[in-house]
Amino acid sequence: MQFLIIGRDGPDADAPARRLAARPAHIEGLKARRAAGEVIEVGALLDDAGSPIGSAMIGEFPDRAAADAYVAQEPYTTAGVWVTVEVTPLRLLTWE
Length: 96
Description:
single chain, alpha+beta, globular, Sec-metab_biosynth-assoc, YCII-related domain-containing protein, YCII, Dimeric_a/b-barrel
């Protein structure tokens, strides 16, 4: 089952530093999950000035519980980068 996961960073002044500190673990985790077929697409959400303010991921998980478990262990969650996370079931268009 596919899910759209949107994590929004905290608005505080320390949020960019938390993101930068957690980024290596975040990227390594994404690489491993992409190799396992769980990550379809991923990218940073940006403000109008081009600074990161969150993340978006389309992932493939067996069910909602598995998607929630991913979010719970994600380095941006455990490091306090994301202050809110939305997990929404998604059906991608299959191009013919």
